[in-house]
Design brief:
Length: 277
């Protein structure tokens, strides 16, 4: 029995259409970014126009479409779609703001506080001892840990590099020198109890985390009210994460963990384009 790639008589490849829930300005921004890149590297030819390439890559990121499916529907190879995806992710990630510049911009606009929180982006479990550090006991799942900062309205302004899922919020914040950057910019931060101990300055704290009850100390009515007010002020940071995780490629990352940082920063840029349109 021999294998053949010839199609049966009166058959053709089936292609379906799917709505891409993104604005035209986002597609145009990505297409213009690619045009400028092609001009800078003096490449005058692609098998498809930049606008079409931008739409394909956005479909991969937004709907987590399989590369082989997108390739077959556009008569290109799977490796070509993968190359386009990685190329545009790199171009977008280069536009993500640095931590110090993001905080200075908030201060220049009259902001007084930012919101900080950590999140776990789930990944596929890999075999071997090397993947054990990616297991988060808190979430009981394998993943990568990210820190993110938002403004008071929940708009993402910065995201950290990817770290193993078992990383504690305080450890990540100390590694990124969050406290020092906040003091330099003259800003405060609202955080959850996971960041307790990060700022030990009692007289002039920069990071506000609320109160915690212990076996020997029950919260007073005033402390409970302070925690409630803090929770209301921190709520928008969850909206920022929700907007970011609308990109279904983050449902369960299949990319190499080393490339996850560029992917998250590229999605941050795209998320802000959608929110600020």
């Amino acid at each position: 029995m021999t294998n053949t790639e010839e199609r049966a008589e009166d058959t053709c490849p089936l292609v379906y259409q799917c709505r891409l829930p993104l604005s035209t300005s986002t597609v145009n921004h990505l297409a213009d970014l690619l045009r400028r890149h092609l001009k800078s590297i003096r490449s005058r030819w692609r098998i498809l126009p930049p606008g079409k390439i931008a739409a394909i890559v956005l479909a991969v990121l937004r709907h987590d479409q399989r590369l082989a499916d997108m390739a077959g529907g556009n008569n290109v190879s799977e490796s070509t779609v993968r190359r386009w995806r990685d190329e545009l992710i790199g171009l977008l990630a280069a536009q993500a703001p640095r931590l110090d510049r993001a905080l200075k911009k908030i201060a220049k606009q009259g902001g007084e506080v930012v919101l900080i929180d950590g999140t776990l982006i789930r990944t596929r479990r890999r075999t071997g001892k090397a993947d054990r550090r990616n297991y988060s006991g808190k979430h009981r799942s394998h993943g990568l840990h990210f820190l993110a900062l938002t403004d008071e309205k929940g708009r993402l302004i910065w995201i950290s590099a990817a770290r193993p899922g078992r990383t504690h919020d305080n450890t990540a914040a100390r590694h990124d020198h969050i406290l020092a950057h906040l003091r330099t910019a003259g800003l405060g931060a609202l955080a959850d109890l996971g960041f307790r101990g990060l700022d030990n300055d009692i007289l002039d704290p920069v990071i506000v985390t609320g109160y915690i009850a212990t076996r020997t100390h029950k919260l007073t009515r005033g402390e409970k009210e302070a925690n409630r007010i803090l929770a209301v002020g921190r709520a928008p940071v969850e909206h920022g994460f929700a907007h970011l995780k609308n990109w279904r490629i983050l449902t369960k990352l299949r990319t190499d963990p080393a490339r996850a940082t560029r992917l998250l920063r590229a999605l941050l840029v795209l998320t802000n384009l959608e929110i600020n349109r």
